[in-house]
Amino acid sequence: xxxxxxxILLVVSGSVAAxxxxxxxxxxRKAGAxxxxxxxxxxxxxxxxxxxxxxxxxxxxxxxxxAEAEIGHIRLARWPxxxxxxxxSANLLAKLANGLADDLASTxxxxxxxxxxxxxxMNPAMxxxxxxxxxxxxxxxxxxxxxxxxxxxxxxxxxxTGRLAEPPHILAAIERMLATGPLAxxxxxxxxxxxxxxxxxxxxxxxxxxxxxxxxxxxxxxALGARVTLVSGPVAIADPPGVAVARVESARDMLAxxxxxxxxDAAVFCAAVADFRPDAAPAQKIKKTPGAPPPxxxxxxxxxxxxxxxxxxxxxxxxxxxxxxxxxxVVEHAREKxxxxxCDWIVxxxxxxxxxxxxxxxxxxxxxxxVEDWPRxxxxxxxxxxxxxxxxxxA
Length: 395
Ligand code: C5P
What we know:
The chain is of the alpha/beta class. It has two domains: 7-177, 3-Layer(aba) Sandwich (Rossmann fold); 187-278 and 293-394, Rossmann fold. Helix content is 34%, strand content 23%. The chain has helices spanning 20-30, 49-56, 64-70, 73-78, 90-98, 104-111, 124-128, 130-141, 167-177, 212-223, 251-261, 305-310, 330-341, 379-394; strands at 7-12, 34-39, 82-88, 116-120, 145-146, 150-153, 159-163, 187-192, 197-198, 204-205, 227-232, 244-247, 266-269, 276-278, 299-301, 319-326, 345-350, 360-361, 363-367, 370-373, 377-378. The strands form six sheets. The protein has an eight-stranded mixed β-sheet with strand order 12-11-8-13-16-17-19-20, sandwiched between helices. The two termini are 19 Å apart. The structure holds cytidine-5'-monophosphate (C5P). Cytidine-5'-monophosphate is lined by residues 191, 251, 269-271, 273, 275, 302, 304-306, 322-324.
C-alpha cells in the first residue's frame, strides 16, 4: 500500500530496540510517508538524534521547551495522520495510560487527536507484569492500537514475549490503520494451503498445496485496504504482510477458525482441504507388529468448509468465492460446483500441469453472469486481478 502524503509522528522511547526505529523510518519513507521523529531522553540513549534526522529527512524534536518556543507541542500534536510509538517502553505506556505529561513525547501523546499505534518493547517480565498489562488494557480500551510485542530472544540472555515487532510488521499495522483502498472497512476471510489429517500422533495425510495462491490473494486484498483474516493450513511460506493469520492443521480446525473469524464481507476459499480424514486417530503411535497384516485406515468425510459457509442462512458473507482444481472439463465442472456448493463465484484452474506448488496459474472466473477466461499469469497477478474484481463487486 502506498503511504504517499501521509504524515507520521514517530515517538522513539528508551529500549535497546530503538535502533529498529531507523529501519521503520526508512520503510515509511520508501512507502511515501512524511516522518517527524520525537525522541525521548531514554530513546536518545540508544539512537542518536543525528541518525534519526538523517534517515527521516526531518528535524528531530526532543525538548518540550524548545518545541514550545518554536512551534508548540499542540501544533506538533495536530500535525500527524497517525502517531506511532516504536519502541514504546513500559514507562511511556504507563505515562500514557495515566495521563502524565512531563516531557515532549508524553505531552504530545496526551494532546493529539490522531490515532495512536504503540509497538511495545521491554523485558518479558516487565511486559508480563500486571501493572503493564493493566496499562495496556486501559490503552486498548481507549482506542490505542498495539502491534507486538513478539516472541523471541532478547538482548539479555533470556527469551519470551517482549521483543519489538519487526519493522515490516509495524509498517503493515500502520498501513492497515491508514488504509484508504477500495476495500477499506471490509473484512475478508481467506483459506489457504493444505490440511493435515492425523493418522496417529506422528503421521498424517496431506496434499501438495503450497499456499502460494491463497497467501497471494490475502496480500492483494490487504493491499486494497481490506482487513484480512488468513486461515492457513501448514505451509512453508512466510505470512503475508498486513494480514492476521490463524494457523490450523486439519479441515475441522480450519472450519472452526473460519467460523470464529466471522462476520466477514467476503470469503475466499482457496485451501486444498482434504476431503477425507482417518476416521479415528489413536492417541498412541500405531506400531508395526512383525508378521501381522498392515493396519487399515478407514476414512471419514471431512466437513466442506466452502459449502457450509456459503449455505449459512445467517451471517453468510455477501460474496463467497470457491476454487475448483480440475484436470478435465474445467469450466463445466466449475459451473456445476458453483451451484452445488452455493457459492457466488468459482475460480477454476486446470491442475493437469504444474500448477500445484508452481508460480503460475491459468484460471477461469465462473460467476452467475458467465465465464471469464484469464490468461496464464503469475499467481500474484491472479491474486491482484481477483482482489480487484472483489473490490468492484463492493463498489
Ligand atoms: O469439492 P472440491 O474440493 O473440488 O471444491 C473445492 C473448493 O471447495 C475450494 O474452494 C476448497 O477450498 C473448498 N473446500 C472446502 N472444504 C472441503 C473441500 C473443499 O472448503 N472439505
